[in-house]
Amino acid sequence: MKVYQGKCVVGGIAIGKIALVKENLPQEQNQDVLTPEEELERFQNSKAKAIEEINALHQKALKEIGEEEAMIFEVHAMMLEDLDYNEFIEEKIAQGQSASHALLEAREYFSTLFAQMDDEYMKERSADILDISNRVLKILSGVVEREIKEPSIILADDLSPSQTLQLDRSCFLALVTRYGSNNSHTAILARTMGIPACIQMHYDESVDGEVAILDSESGKLYVNPSEQLLKEFTEIQERKAKEQEELQAYIGKPTLTQSGKKIMLYANIGNLEDAKSALQNDAEGIGLFRSEFLYLQKNTYPSEDEQFEAYKEVLELMGGKKVVIRTLDIGADKKIDYFDLDFEENPALGYRAIRICLDRKEIFKTQLRALCKASVYGKLAVMFPMITSLWEVQEIKKILQEVQNELKEQGLEYDENLELGVMIETPASALIAQDLAKEVDFFSIGTNDLTQYTLALDRQNPKLERFANPYHPAIFKLIKMVVDAGHQNNCWIGVCGELAGDLKVCEELIGLGVDELSVSPAMILSLRKRILLIK
Ligand code: PEP
Ligand code: MG
Description:
The protein folds into 3 domains: 2-22 and 146-227, Glucose Oxidase, domain 1 (3-Layer(bba) Sandwich), CATH 3.50.30; 36-141, Enzyme I, Chain A, domain 2 (Orthogonal Bundle), CATH 1.10.274.10; 257-532, Phosphoenolpyruvate-binding domains (TIM Barrel, Alpha-Beta Barrel). 47% of the residues lie in helices and 15% in strands. The protein is built from 20 helices and 16 strands. Strands 1-8-7-3-4-5-6-2 form an 8-stranded mixed sheet. An 8-stranded parallel barrel has the order 9-10-11-12-13-14-15-16, surrounded by 4 helices. A hairpin with a 4-residue loop joins strand 7 and strand 8. The longest helix is centred in the N-terminal third of the chain and has 29 residues, at 36-64. Phosphoenolpyruvate is lined by residues 288, 290, 329, 425, 446-449, 496-497.
């Protein structure tokens, strides 16, 4: 048996055969070069076939994932028809080169050209040049993409949008990638599909076709496991499935402790798909909508309209249940190229979240406008990340007022009673909670960052696991301070970091007076079950 270690993206257990998915990059052909006319014909025919494939993928993407994500295939079709690209290839063929050699040269020339451009959006097009050129080259050289015929644990370097669409998703038991990050396309896909997934696993390619167990929560892939291990994990898997079935009985039940305290049991989401999953799991609202995912999925700033639509969709779907949207929280571990952020020695202590928003006011105002306009479609609350000082909240409120005045002047509606909150993610904000509470309606405690900043411990650094005690008494002291300060000033208090979904501390958090817990959709029902048992 071999064991490989990766990083968990979606927790769960999968047992099955491994299917290795590789991008089969076509090599230069050793075929005889035909006459220029014949080579040109080969190129034209392969290009026409490639466009057919792209159009089919576009249709499939429209049906399966939506208009915005499908657009990339429209761009690909357009690029393949681009005059400069075609003239370059035709000229090379006229000079006596084979169609595949001409294509390889075009691939090299145009991808380098785009990669060297200053504009981030244009730079990204370099990858698209590779994608379209490879598609035609594969057709020319007869490379056949691997088909997966049975449910498998998929292993890949990373999956491109085309690969993800070409593969039959009913065959995905789990996803493991060598590269990628928590926010990579593959991670988002796995989350949406609700299948176990790991990233950054350095597996050996010889494992293709072997039987394996993926225990993604611990980040482990067991290849050729012993009969004993298979038996153990099959039992765990069955037990989990049974528990999941039993949890369905908690759908529709009010979340009350035995003494009658009502807990708001909300979900953390990143997009509309997650919101659907939140509803399926009977979340009573959304406690954290990480709006930065809208920015992370794009090559340029999402427009006001795009943001408005995304917020409106979630608000409408939740049908009057509270939706807390957090304003943009990028920087530190969440990097976005088009923001053009400088290199920093200590990014977690650097230019991130509200600091960027207060500095680049136009980006912030666009988001606030979109939020205010969407607020009439449901019960919206807005919260702000990484607060450390009172003046930040006062400045945020001034900017919000400016936005609302502008909307009023334009005759546009917004919810005048919009609830406002701050995230408590820094020791400073916890220590001045008394002052902050006078400015807002609620606090949401982000224990992931609060732990990082309180214990001076990088949450991304695996070497520090031994020191990273999520139950450190300092954290609970700060939570208690925040709850008391908030309640004295009529604020409700939520916890939206990972600690909120930790069944071991649920009773303690509620005992401290926390009013709301916001967790991943999959955790909702087991948390309700636990809360119902609290005295
Ligand atoms: C947190 O810091 O606890 C939190 C919920 O925010 P994020 O994990 O997105 O930084
Ligand atoms: Mg945080």
